[in-house]
Write a structure and sequence with these properties.
CATH architecture of the largest domain: 3-Layer(aba) Sandwich
Largest sheet: 8 strands, mixed
Number of domains: 2
Strand order of the largest sheet: 5-4-6-3-7-8-9-10
Membrane topology: Peripheral membrane protein
Helix content: 40-55%
Main location: membrane
Radius of gyration: 31 Å
CATH topology of the largest domain: Rossmann fold
Protein name: Signal recognition particle receptor FtsY
CATH superfamily of the largest domain: P-loop containing nucleotide triphosphate hydrolases
Strand content: 5-15%
Enzyme class: hydrolase
Bound molecules: guanosine-5'-triphosphate
Number of strands: 10
Order of helices and strands: HHHHEHHEHHEHEHEHEHEHEHEEH
CATH class of the largest domain: Alpha Beta
Family: Belongs to the GTP-binding SRP family. FtsY subfamily.
Length: about 375
């Protein structure tokens, strides 16, 4: 997952590290200048018996003269003070890290991170690093890693813990899955069903994709394998009626969660959007999950945003993260849409679904290091 971005971020970390080390170079020279300034001009008298106070030769030595003027005020000395370093703390100026910041910006954009999200990450990096005394500690990389981690976490949002959501809401909790054709919506319904039953919740699936040939059979096959009940009508039936029945079934049988599959659709197809509006009116979902594929990169982010503006979305599921080397959609979507990511799909098996935890995703991006 996100292999290409991970290796690029690793290079960037090294570059930030050497820029900061370069900026921190005067650390070796500054104490030498101070030591020199503190050296007494006259050697200290040999220790001996306490002298009488009134003999002139026994007066205390004169204070050490200041270091030569040119040494204190020389331009090289002050140039070096552009970076003030004390005990491995560094005060960086923006130009000290301009190069790695620019490279980070390019890497994020090449990896399909949306422009406003890239800008936000860069601005968070600057804010963390520039103009503040930063402790370098034993390793510059620790500082870079912590800063990158905090900038990435800052745009990833908090995620959505579906188990917690269900625990806090009246049953049945009704979850409507929407999204574009072929992105993995039906498989995701099955995976979420599996995840919830594994976590002790009872589930019923509504086969609301009555449009695509074979869709009802597809969801039924998944559900049968997982031992989950499916409510279905004929192909071509009104999906609102199917999903209404699924909710009624859940109420009658004390089922915790209704998972409503729907046909794939684009936000600009008016008739399908009207159909979705009707489904919402009839079924009254608690959560609308927008499903798209991580591999679609920026397209997925734009579609999620448009879908949210048109019909509303409560959270996003990004499928096929296992096939996505770039990670751009996963980084950008929550910040762009303003809605959390609930899950990442990480393969074709029923267990290949990962509740979205920003820390875990950042670990993945930064090479599994904390
Ligand atoms: N590698 C990988 N493949 C996935 C993932 N999720 C779904 N797929 C595959 O994507 C393909 C399409 O999945 P479907 O669930 O049929 O897609 P859909 O969105 O329901 O399609 P429509 O019904 O046309 O809207 C299938 O081959 C799935 O196995 C994932 O997380 N990783």
């Amino acid at each position: 997952m996100f292999d290409s971005l991970r290796s690029k971020l690793k290079n960037i970390r090294t570059k930030f590290g050497s820029s900061i080390e370069d900026a921190a170079e005067p650390v070796a020279e500054q104490p030498r200048i101070e030591e020199k300034a503190a050296e007494p001009a006259v050697p200290a008298p040999e220790p001996g018996p306490a002298p009488a106070a009134d003999t002139p030769e026994q007066k205390p030595a004169a204070p050490a003269p200041a270091p030569p003027k040119e040494e204190r005020t020389s331009p090289t000395f002050f140039n070096k003070l552009k970076v003030l370093v004390t005990e491995r703390e560094v005060l960086l100026q923006e130009k000290d890290i301009a190069e790695p910041l620019f490279e980070l910006e390019m890497v994020l954009l090449e990896s399909d991170v949306a422009l406003p999200v890239t800008d936000e990450i860069i601005s968070r990096m600057k804010k963390e690093l520039v103009g503040k005394n930063r402790r370098i500690g034993s390793s510059v990389d620790d500082l870079v890693l912590a800063t990158l981690r905090s900038a990435l976490c800052g745009v990833l949002g908090d995620g959505l813990d579906l188990r917690e959501y269900i625990r806090q809401h009246d049953r049945p909790v009704k979850i409507l899955f929407t999204g574009v054709n072929g992105t993995g919506k039906t498989t995701t319904v099955a995976k979420v069903g599996h995840y919830l039953t594994e976590n002790g919740f009872s589930v019923v699936i509504g086969a609301g994709d009555t449009y695509r040939a074979g869709a009802i059979e597809q969801i039924k096959t998944h559900a049968d394998r997982l031992g989950i009940k499916v409510i279905q009508h004929q192909q071509g039936a009104d999906p609102s009626a199917v999903l209404f029945d699924a909710v009624q079934y859940a109420k009658a049988h004390n089922v915790d969660v209704v998972l409503a599959d729907t046909a794939g659709r684009f936000h600009n197809r008016a008739n399908l959007m009207n159909q979705l509006e009707k489904i919402r009116r009839v079924m009254k979902p608690d959560l609308v999950l927008y499903v798209d594929e991580a591999v679609a990169g920026n397209d997925a982010v734009i579609r999620a945003d448009e879908f949210n503006r048109t019909v509303g979305t409560d959270a996003v599921v990004l499928t096929k993260a296992d096939m996505d080397p770039k990670g751009g959609a996963a980084i950008s979507v929550a910040h762009t849409v303003g809605k959390p990511i609930a899950f990442l799909g990480t393969g074709q098996g029923y267990g290949d679904i990962m509740p979205f935890a920003p820390n875990k995703v950042v670990d993945e991006l930064l090479g599994g290091e904390t």
